[in-house]
Amino acid sequence: MLLKILIALVFTAMVASLAAGAGFLIRDQGHSRRLLISLKFRVSLAAALLALLFYGFYFGELGG
């Protein structure tokens, strides 16, 4: 149960980071480091999400 909550939180954080990056792109016309930082954060969250999913499937907490 805790794993599913962590996966949902990481996914929600990824969507929030995507929205923030889009806002930075629109406001700064892509000439800001904030967009790059947002992308780095989103990539880190994606790696964490993949790790959580692999962990869950490997140990049988997700799926059948």
TrEMBL record:
Keywords attached to this entry: Membrane, Transmembrane, Transmembrane helix
TM region(s), chain numbering? 6-27, 39-58
Query: Which InterPro entries does the entry mention?
Result: DUF2909
Q: What is this protein called?
A: DUF2909 domain-containing protein
Which lineage do the record's taxonomy fields give for this organism?
Answer: Bacteria, Pseudomonadati, Pseudomonadota, Gammaproteobacteria, Oceanospirillales
